[in-house]
Structure formats: structure tokens, C-alpha cells
């Protein structure tokens, strides 16, 4: 009898422990509830950066002030994904004018570096690291363009929190410590200079681990110069001289003149309507319209009868991706150098035509005939209704490996994304912006803001954008569930860097996709694989126009946080 009571007690405790780990409401895969706030919301990949943005909002700053402050903090706290050595793109919903604005703050290739140079060196592609792939870093100019048009607080106040953390230090998070302890030794193995002085010597002679204090006084000094002297302190002052001299010493071509000539561009975002929602992206040289092309094809299917994560869902998604990415390879490039047929690519007629090519099995496609690595994503909303969707990156994690002396940051290697094949849209030219993977997104409904969001991850980004839109609209998930849902991607096919399609590629899935789906995809002729660390980076803010409440969500695959008030 006593043994039976103990068994019953054990089973009761076991049942309690199991159910205590399960959420009472929502999808089983959700990691937490949405964050709610009436006056403002910040969602970034680092809790301290989120708090900096929130503090700016509470002190009377607007969404743009808070976004710049948080982005500056992320350049310090997440150097493995972003920094002022990289580029920036943003979509802004302005609460005053009730319009969307787009900023392309990506940099151009060196004027003195030519296609012939690579050909004479016998190179088939631009190297991934070193001085040759370095293009002009556009982030700082992007900050000041955003600030000039929408900002309210002085830049000295906006950059002060990041400067303070850079000088006094902060504890590294689990994920960034892991990346940093992998990245720096890799660059050191290539004998790149200034790594030890910048990332190790200032931290007690070793790379910090999770929970240990990390400092970057060189970056604090650079930020201080920018806060006081404006964008010209970066592009025309001592900083520019240091960068130009250093890159030349390393055998590269980026010069003071290239930096002095740089300017960002305000562009008109483009959109498609997906089941009553207008989804906005920036036009090329980024890849945002690939997400729009995918949505145009997918809206021709009734997903009310297709289960999330089913073989049919992943099959149709993958085939739409293949078609869009073939067009991406052929047509996406700097529109100052190539006439990208954006209107035709996003038209209903073109989508209808391409949709007819999709069958029941894995297909292989070519571009349509037209008549004409790591990143950070963050978003902020304020009490005046302004929302900013901002993405910023060095490419390939920390970037090129080129660390100018005593400046505290690494330069990007975006130039790797040019093609060296003559006659292509994205073929290298001096003063040209490379094809870009980083893309911010925005959704409106009935000309009102709905969701500001983004998903990091190189080629995965347009696929991630499309998955989020479908999760919200087709599958009825809330904002956090839409990001927590298991993800999948497709790799293989043509690229803007010159690769061509040789087979049907591979679908890679997270562990949350059931085996029955994988088996069903195999039956349709798809190859299946896995990948590590390519899916994470989602942040989002939703505006509930009925209750006048912001909903925030942050990526469960990273260290981030959404917070509001």
C-alpha cells in the first residue's frame, strides 16, 4: 500500500514537472508571450542595447534617436555582427507624415580598383577577407541622414551610453562570447594586424568569456569624435586618413577620397499586397524584392487548407524561392549602374506566369525573361507613432579582418559580393555598390502601420521575411510565435556573384519541422539537409491600432530582448 502511494506521488510530481514546462496558451513552440507597451517599444539582439534605446525614449527622444543609440551600442556589444565599419539600411514609418521612407546607407567600391586588376591577378572571385573586399562603410553616414531628417536629441547625448559602456565595460552574453572566441583566433591565424591591440590587450590580455567584462576604449574615442564632429569626423577627418593609410599598407584600394565622396541615398520603398497587407522592402542593390516576388507567387495558393510545417507548405515555399532567386541572380544590382526591372518583377502578371511553372515535384528553374553571414536587426517605435526598421552589418560576422589602428572596429568585406564575370548586372565596377544581403521590412494595412520586422542571415533573409509574413497572415500566429516557429531554407542555385544552377538544391530544416514533412519532401524529389546558426536574428514590433498598444517580439535563438513602457 505504501509503495503504491509513493508510486502515485512520483507520477504526480513527474506529471507536474512536465506540464510546468509547457505554456498554458499559444503555440507549443512559443518561448514566451509578446511584450506589450503603450508608449514605446525597442527590440534588439542585446538586452543592454534594448535598455539604452528604451532610456532614450523615456527621456523624450524619438524612435530614430533610440535606434541610433541602440545601434551604436550593438557595434560595441555585438562586434561579431555589426559596427561602424559596415553598412546600414532602414525603413521608417513617420508618425507625422504617415508615410514610409527608405534609406540606403551602403557604401561603394574603391574608385581606383578595377575589374582588370582582378583579371590580371587571375582571380575568379573577390576574396572573402583582407583588404580587397573592403568597400566604403556607410553606417555612420546613415546615422546622420536618419538624424537630420527625423532625429530630435543631440548626437552627443545619443552616443553617450555606448561611449560609457565602451570605456567602463560590460559583461559578454553567451552567444557573442562564443562568436568572439571563434572569430578573433581565425583572423589572427591570417596574421591580420591590430587584432590583439583592439580586442585582447584592452581586456586583460585575453578574450573574455560569457559573463566576463569586455571593454573597447578605442571605439569609445572614435564614437566621441563622431558625436562631436559629425559624419565628417568619420569621412573626412583623422579617422578617414587612418583608414585610407592602413588599407593601402595592406595592399587594398579604399582611400580617403572614397570615404570623402560617400553619401547615403533616400529611396522609395516598394511593396506588394499580400491578402490585404502591404509588405514593404527596399529596392536593389539589396535583395528585399526577392521576398516580395516570393509572396506574389505564394498568394496564388490557398494556405487556409495547408498546414504549417507540412510538406505542401515547404514544397510550395521552396519552389517560389527558387524562381525568385534565379531572378535575383540575373537582375539585382546597384540601380545607378543597371536598370533593374522592379515593376515587372513584382507584377501580378509575372507572378501568375512563373507560378504555372511549379509542379508537384522539386523543380529546376531559370531567370524570367523581362522586357526591360552575420548581421544585426533592430526595430524601435515611439509614442508619436514613428517606427523604424533598421538592419546593419559588416558581412561574414566581424568583417574583412581589417582593423585600422586604434579606432576600435573592423571594416566590412561587402565587396566580396560582386561578380567578376563580365556583362552581368552585379559585375564589379569602380564606385559601385555591391549586391547586398541585409534587408529591413515593414507591413502596413489600410495605409496604417502594422509590423516593423526583420530577420538576419545572408541569403536566408528574404526567405525569413516571407516565412514571418506567412506565419502572421496565413497561419494566424502572434508576433512572438511567428519568430519562434521552426524555420527552413533552401540552398543552391544561381547567385548575383556568378554561380549558376546545376541541380534542385537542398532544403535545410530546423529540428521543429516534423519527420513526416521531411519524408513527404523526399517523396517529391527534394534533397534534405541541416544547418547551424543561419536562421536567427528576428526582432519585431506590431502596432495594434484598435487598442493603441505596441506588441514586441525578440529572437529566441539569440540573446536579445524586446522591452516597452
TrEMBL record:
Posttranslational mods: Cleaved by autocatalysis into a large and a small subunit.
Signal peptide range: none
Active site: 375 (nucleophile)
UniProt keywords, alphabetically: Acyltransferase, Glutathione biosynthesis, Hydrolase, Transferase, Zymogen
Listed InterPro entries: GGT-like_enzyme, GGT_peptidase, GGT_ssub_C, Ntn_hydrolases_N
Pathway the protein takes part in: Sulfur metabolism; glutathione metabolism
EC number: 2.3.2.2, 3.4.19.13
Gene3D superfamilies: 1.10.246.230, 3.60.20.40
Highest taxon, organism lineage: Bacteria
Residues reported in the UniProt entry to bind L-glutamate: 458
Name the UniProt record assigns to this protein: Glutathione hydrolase proenzyme
Catalysed reactions, as listed in the record: an N-terminal (5-L-glutamyl)-[peptide] + an alpha-amino acid = 5-L-glutamyl amino acid + an N-terminal L-alpha-aminoacyl-[peptide]; glutathione + H2O = L-cysteinylglycine + L-glutamate; an S-substituted glutathione + H2O = an S-substituted L-cysteinylglycine + L-glutamate
Species of origin: Tenacibaculum jejuense
GO molecular function, one term: leukotriene C4 gamma-glutamyl transferase activity
SUPFAM superfamilies per record: N-terminal nucleophile aminohydrolases (Ntn hydrolases)
UniProt family annotation: Belongs to the gamma-glutamyltransferase family.
Oligomeric form and interacting partners: This enzyme consists of two polypeptide chains, which are synthesized in precursor form from a single polypeptide.
NCBIfam families cross-referenced by the UniProt entry: g_glut_trans
Gene Ontology biological process: glutathione biosynthetic process; glutathione catabolic process
Amino acid at each position: 500500500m505504501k509503495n503504491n502511494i509513493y508510486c502515485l506521488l512520483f507520477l504526480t510530481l513527474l506529471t507536474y514537472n512536465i506540464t510546468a514546462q509547457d505554456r498554458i496558451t499559444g503555440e507549443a513552440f512559443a518561448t514566451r508571450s509578446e511584450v506589450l507597451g503603450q508608449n514605446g517599444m525597442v527590440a534588439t539582439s542585446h538586452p543592454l542595447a534594448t535598455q539604452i534605446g528604451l532610456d532614450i525614449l523615456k527621456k523624450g527622444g524619438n524612435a530614430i534617436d533610440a535606434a541610433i543609440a541602440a545601434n551604436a551600442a550593438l557595434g560595441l556589444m555585438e562586434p561579431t555582427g555589426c559596427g561602424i565599419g559596415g553598412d546600414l539600411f532602414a525603413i521608417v514609418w513617420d508618425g507625422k507624415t504617415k508615410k514610409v521612407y527608405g534609406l540606403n546607407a551602403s557604401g561603394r567600391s574603391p574608385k581606383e580598383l578595377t575589374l582588370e586588376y582582378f583579371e590580371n591577378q587571375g582571380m575568379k572571385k573577390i576574396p572573402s577577407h583582407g583588404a580587397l573586399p573592403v568597400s566604403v562603410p556607410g553606417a555612420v553616414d546613415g546615422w546622420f541622414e536618419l538624424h537630420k531628417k527625423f532625429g530630435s536629441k543631440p548626437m552627443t547625448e545619443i552616443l553617450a551610453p555606448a561611449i560609457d559602456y565602451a570605456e567602463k565595460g560590460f559583461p559578454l552574453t553567451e552567444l557573442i562570447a562564443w562568436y568572439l572566441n571563434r572569430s578573433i583566433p581565425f583572423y589572427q591565424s591570417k596574421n591580420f594586424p591590430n587584432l590583439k591591440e583592439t580586442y585582447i590587450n584592452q581586456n586583460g590580455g585575453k578574450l573574455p568569456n560569457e559573463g566576463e567584462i569586455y571593454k573597447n576604449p578605442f571605439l569609445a574615442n572614435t564614437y566621441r569624435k563622431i558625436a562631436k564632429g559629425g559624419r565628417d569626423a568619420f569621412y573626412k577627418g583623422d579617422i578617414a586618413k587612418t583608414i585610407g593609410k592602413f588599407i593601402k599598407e595592406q595592399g587594398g584600394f579604399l582611400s580617403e577620397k572614397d570615404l570623402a565622396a560617400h553619401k547615403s541615398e533616400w529611396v522609395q520603398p516598394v511593396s506588394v499586397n499580400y491578402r490585404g497587407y502591404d509588405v514593404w522592402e527596399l529596392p536593389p542593390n539589396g535583395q528585399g524584392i526577392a521576398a516580395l516576388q516570393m509572396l506574389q507567387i505564394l498568394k496564388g495558393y490557398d494556405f487556409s487548407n495547408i498546414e504549417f510545417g507540412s510538406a505542401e507548405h515547404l514544397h510550395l515555399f521552396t519552389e517560389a524561392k527558387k524562381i525568385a532567386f534565379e531572378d535575383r541572380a540575373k537582375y539585382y544590382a546597384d540601380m545607378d549602374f543597371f536598370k533593374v526591372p522592379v515593376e515587372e518583377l513584382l507584377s501580378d502578371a509575372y507572378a501568375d506566369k512563373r507560378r504555372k511553372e511549379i509542379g508537384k515535384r522539386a523543380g529546376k528553374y531559370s531567370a524570367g525573361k523581362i522586357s526591360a553571414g552575420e548581421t544585426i536587426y533592430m526595430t524601435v517605435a515611439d509614442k508619436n507613432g514613428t517606427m523604424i526598421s533598421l538592419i546593419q552589418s559588416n558581412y561574414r560576422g566581424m568583417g574583412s579582418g581589417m582593423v585600422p589602428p586604434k579606432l576600435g572596429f573592423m571594416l566590412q568585406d561587402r565587396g566580396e559580393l560582386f561578380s567578376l564575370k563580365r556583362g552581368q548586372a552585379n559585375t564589379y565596377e569602380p564606385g559601385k555598390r555591391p549586391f547586398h544581403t541585409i534587408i529591413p521590412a515593414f507591413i502596413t494595412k489600410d495605409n496604417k502601420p502594422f509590423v516593423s520586422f526583420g530577420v538576419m542571415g545572408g541569403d536566408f533573409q528574404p526567405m525569413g521575411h516571407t516565412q514571418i509574413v506567412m506565419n502572421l497572415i496565413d497561419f494566424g500566429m502572434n508576433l512572438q510565435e511567428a519568430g519562434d516557429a521552426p524555420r527552413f531554407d533552401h540552398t543552391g542555385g544561381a547567385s548575383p556573384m556568378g554561380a549558376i544552377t546545376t541541380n534542385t538544391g537542398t532544403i535545410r530544416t530546423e529540428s521543429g519541422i516534423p519527420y513526416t514533412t521531411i519524408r513527404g519532401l523526399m517523396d517529391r524529389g527534394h534533397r534534405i539537409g541541416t544547418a547551424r546558426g543561419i536562421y536567427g536574428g528576428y526582432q519585431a514590433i506590431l502596432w495594434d491600432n484598435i487598442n493603441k498598444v505596441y506588441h514586441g517580439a525578440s529572437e529566441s535563438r539569440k540573446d536579445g530582448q524586446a522591452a516597452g513602457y
